Backbone:
């Protein structure tokens, strides 16, 4: 009951936010929140650190952007196909990487995403360094004009809620329980007869598809897909968001994305623009040394200690 | 939602109606955003210098126009189209910016001008080279001032092909600008009976050009054309000299900005010819302005700096003449009025947004010809604007 | 132009040479990574930043202290190694008992900070460092012009890598090292200061990156992101070679440089991707890497 009230308040806040804050900024925040949630599905619930999730973000973005520019499809279809493309890529990469663990998994995913980066750099359809520019936002279902920033925001909010709900469902399903069992004690899960690699592989694919969904949506918001989204710095950023917010908590990535995107928004363009990487690196170091459970995780600890 | 917007609009109209002289200036001020590369390979040709030049124009204009203050904001695009376009979007949608100036990398400018055009704001392009902004991607709100790739190719390539250098190899910056320059230059070469024997595409900001230089070396070309800019040109020339390429073939820098020419080894770069839209040491007027710029900025102006100043001045004069900062009225006035200052010689701003003015074919001085570090170019000839630029496309004739 | 079976030898040899030079840097960096990994079981994500630090240190030493290239070759690795020692002692050791992923993230954050700091101070456009006078010439070979400095890099890298390999695999010092990692408790019982060995080895691995940085300064311009771009390639090389294999790191580093060079000649569009493609193939056929032992 308490949780439900919390959700309702959050939703109301999200609905009125664009009247106070710049809608494009809010939409960007939601895209990254979804991206971080998708990433957290792997790190937080399977215990595998993927250092290559930018590949899926970028793939979703490029495919959706290309379809919007060349196919005449409506945005919701283009987003679906972009998401599917990222999912397929995720399935392939998952096959190659889930057999590895820990650091090996991180490095393999990183190297695979770099392969994708260079392919997009060379492929003519992405526009290379210029990026894919001037992607039309189109009309949702052929009816609602998304070039209006408010309409766009509510569409992004709907997508985010869908993605968030899906992750929530996945975690709390029997499938999610097996994932957690694998995270906690993999040999035991194996001895119970679960095909661990298959579970990891499916989780990886879902995570990749949702990262692609975030990328597809982001491309529509900014009307541009670029190499930044596929660069490994982006993979690092999403790790940071999740770490800051709280690994393995359902709300952590949202909070973390909020903190990082807000910080970037106010620092970029300003006098402090130069400091952004220094600050991000510093947060990384501090989080790892002292706050490994992140904002939400630490909050939960304090809550439990005092009220639980 | 609609209701709210209308109320806001009514409120703002009422607010500004009462301020009298500023009635025609939206939000009570004229705000110019300067988008530049503050720390990257183009920082010397349009970074803080572009901000300084724009500031000088605002100060020389008097700091206010039609009674309203003129404000400048600036940002670092990091040479990334996504970063640049997001900044410009924030400026025009949320921060009441009326015109966006600066603009270096053509990739960023391409993305940024899409946003300004959608928002009906004026783009004052000072340092980008691609000709797309007044052709393929032309827009009624684009103003392209200093130079473009057509002027570079016609100015530098044509005389060399005519002098018998027939086989060309390109080392090209791998993005909008490099592709445009290579494309235009190839056309000029082929029209004049030459041929292109190969091209190597190097990413923006490449630090080791050796493998591209080796490709050029084994191509059997007469001339290796550097279709890049900024530090890329400096670094590729350095590699060319290290591998002995400069002794085997001619090297042509298609776009050499003065700060970059300063950074090159004069023994290697001396005698190389290129085309520029401005040089600080042309006459009394250019020296006077450049001296003031130098005092503020610490080094001699590149052509984009002078262009940014000249263009901002013209924009502000047009606001004054139009009596409003409404983009449509201002751009019409900008095109009606003839730009004429130390930078713009025999100049007109065409309906496609291309500012056509005299260009200069220059030679980089050899070490023994230089008075001091700032004595870089000698002018070989002046190219009249109508010969330097391509004619206007009918579909870009925005009246 | 000399050709053989339709291949332009001038071009081919040139690209092979450039590949071998890149390979020299790959080898030095992946060797450093392999040493650190072998001992601490962590991936030092800051290895690229240390390489960058080495190049900047060389530049700063020359421009502010008048320390020339040759002196920098000795001084800079010591300084960078010291940074590594401090980093291990005060950042990595406190979390040594946590999941190794945390140390990877920590070094990643540290690298980000260093890179941001240098970007803030020197911009991203690059500083130039001249080739030392003694090596500024070149030699005309039958098929190509070989700048002396490039030849020096290959020789120096091979010698340094070889010596390091010999030291770790063949000397008593190396034996202590290997024993200390396999069974730290036992070594401790024998009165050997294992934490000190760990710290010094980390410092040594990092110093190798610093050395590579000094060597790179004259040919690549000195930029804050020079290390981060290289590091990902080095990671792929480590995966290909097999983690923890010292010899594997050296051979794969040089080999991949050559493969890259060949690709640059025959199909330049794929030159950036080829190493990652090799990695995928190796992963499919030999998941533990070419020289790695199956875990």
Residues:
């Amino acid at each position: 009951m308490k949780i439900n009230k919390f959700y309702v308040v959050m939703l109301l806040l999200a609905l009125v936010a664009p009247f106070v804050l710049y809608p494009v900024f809010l939409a960007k925040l939601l895209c990254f929140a979804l991206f971080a949630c998708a990433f957290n599905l792997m790190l937080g619930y399977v215990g595998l650190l993927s250092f290559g999730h930018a590949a899926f973000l970028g793939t979703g973005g490029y495919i959706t952007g290309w379809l919007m520019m060349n196919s005449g499809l409506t945005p919701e279809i283009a987003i679906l196909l972009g998401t599917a493309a990222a999912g397929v890529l995720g399935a392939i990469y998952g096959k190659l990487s889930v057999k590895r663990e820990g650091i090996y998994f991180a490095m393999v995913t990183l190297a695979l995403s770099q392969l994708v980066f260079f392919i997009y750099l060379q492929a003519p359809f992405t526009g290379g360094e210029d990026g894919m520019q001037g992607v039309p936002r189109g009309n949702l279902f052929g009816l609602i004009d998304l070039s209006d920033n408010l309409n766009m925001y509510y569409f992004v909010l709907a997508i985010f809620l869908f993605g968030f709900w899906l992750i929530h469902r996945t975690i709390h399903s029997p499938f999610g329980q097996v994932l957690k069992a694998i995270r906690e004690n993999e040999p035991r899960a194996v001895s119970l007869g679960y095909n661990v690699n298959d579970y990891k592989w499916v989780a990886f694919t879902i995570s990749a598809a949702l990262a692609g969904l975030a990328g597809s949506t982001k491309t529509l918001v900014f009307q541009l897909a670029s190499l930044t989204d596929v660069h490994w710095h982006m993979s690092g950023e999403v790790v940071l968001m999740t770490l800051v917010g709280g690994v393995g908590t359902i709300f952590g990535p949202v909070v973390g994305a909020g903190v990082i995107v807000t910080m970037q928004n106010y620092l970029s363009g300003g006098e402090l623009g130069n400091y952004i990487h220094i600050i991000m690196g510093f947060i990384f170091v501090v989080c790892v040394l002292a706050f490994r459970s992140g904002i939400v995780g630490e909050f939960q600890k304090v809550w439990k200690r005092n009220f639980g | 939602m609609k209701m709210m917007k209308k109320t806001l609009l009514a409120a703002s109209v009422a607010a500004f109606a009462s301020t009298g002289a500023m009635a025609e200036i939206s939000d009570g001020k004229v705000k110019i955003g300067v988008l530049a590369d503050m720390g990257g390979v183009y920082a010397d040709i349009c970074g803080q210098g572009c901000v300084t030049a724009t500031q000088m124009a605002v100060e020389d204009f008097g700091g206010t126009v039609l009674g309203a203050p003129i404000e400048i904001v600036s940002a670092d695009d990091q040479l990334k189209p996504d970063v640049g376009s997001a900044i410009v979007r924030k400026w025009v949608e949320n921060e009441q910016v009326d015109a966006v100036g600066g603009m270096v990398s053509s990739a960023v400018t391409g993305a940024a001008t899409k946003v300004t055009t959608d928002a009906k704001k004026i783009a004052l392009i000072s340092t980008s080279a691609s000709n797309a902004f007044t052709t393929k991607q032309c827009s009624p709100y684009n103003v392209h001032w200093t130079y473009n790739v057509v002027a570079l190719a016609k100015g530098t390539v044509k005389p060399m092909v005519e002098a018998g250098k027939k086989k060309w190899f390109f080392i090209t910056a791998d993005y909008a600008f490099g592709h445009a320059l290579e494309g235009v230059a190839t056309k000029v070469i082929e029209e004049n009976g030459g041929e292109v024997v190969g091209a190597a595409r190097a990413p923006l900001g490449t630090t080791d050009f050796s493998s591209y230089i080796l490709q050029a070396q084994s191509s059997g070309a007469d001339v290796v054309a550097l279709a890049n800019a900024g530090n890329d040109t400096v670094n590729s020339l350095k590699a060319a000299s290290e591998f002995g390429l400069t002794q085997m073939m001619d090297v042509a820098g298609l776009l050499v900005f003065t700060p970059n020419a300063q950074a090159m080894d004069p023994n290697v770069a001396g005698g190389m010819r290129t085309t520029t839209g401005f040089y600080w040491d042309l006459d009394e007027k250019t020296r006077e302005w450049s001296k003031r710029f130098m005092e503020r900025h610490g080094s001699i102006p590149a052509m984009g700096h002078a262009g940014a100043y000249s263009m901002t001045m013209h924009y502000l004069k047009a606001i004054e003449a139009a009596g409003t900062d409404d983009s449509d009225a201002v751009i019409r006035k900008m095109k009606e009025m003839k730009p004429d200052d130390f930078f713009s010689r025999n100049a007109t701003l065409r309906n496609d947004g291309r500012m056509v003015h005299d260009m200069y074919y220059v030679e980089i001085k050899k070490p023994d010809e230089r008075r001091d570090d700032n004595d870089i170019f000698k002018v070989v000839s002046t190219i009249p604007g109508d010969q330097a630029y391509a004619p206007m496309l009918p579909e870009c004739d925005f009246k | 132009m000399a050709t053989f079976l339709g291949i332009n030898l001038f071009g081919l040899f040139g690209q092979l040479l450039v590949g071998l030079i890149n390979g020299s840097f790959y080898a030095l960096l992946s060797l450093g990574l392999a040493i650190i990994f072998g001992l601490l079981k962590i991936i030092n994500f800051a290895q690229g930043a240390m390489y960058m630090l080495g190049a900047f240190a060389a530049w700063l030493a020359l421009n502010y202290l008048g320390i020339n290239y040759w002196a920098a070759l000795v001084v800079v690795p010591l300084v960078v190694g010291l940074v590594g020692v401090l980093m291990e002692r005060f950042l990595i050791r406190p979390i040594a008992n946590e999941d190794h992923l945390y140390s990877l993230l920590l070094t990643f954050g540290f690298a980000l900070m260093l890179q941001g700091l240098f970007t803030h101070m020197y911009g991203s456009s690059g500083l130039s460092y001249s080739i030392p006078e003694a090596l500024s010439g070149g030699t005309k070979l039958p098929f190509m012009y070989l700048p002396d400095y490039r030849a020096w890099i290959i020789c120096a890298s091979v010698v340094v890598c070889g010596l390091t390999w010999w030291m770790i695999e063949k000397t008593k010092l190396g034996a202590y090292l290997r024993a200390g990692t396999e069974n730290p408790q036992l070594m401790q019982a024998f009165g050997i200061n294992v934490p000190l060995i760990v710290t010094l080895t980390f410092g040594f691995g990092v110093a190798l990156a610093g050395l590579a940085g000094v060597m790179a300064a004259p040919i690549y311009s000195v930029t804050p992101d020079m290390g981060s771009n290289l590091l990902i390639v080095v990671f792929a090389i480590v995966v290909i070679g097999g983690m923890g294999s010292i010899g594997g790191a050296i051979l794969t580093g040089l080999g991949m440089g050559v493969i890259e060079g060949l690709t640059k000649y025959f199909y330049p569009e794929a030159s950036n991707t080829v190493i990652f493609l090799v990695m995928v193939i190796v992963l499919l056929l030999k998941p533990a890497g070419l020289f790695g032992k199956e875990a």
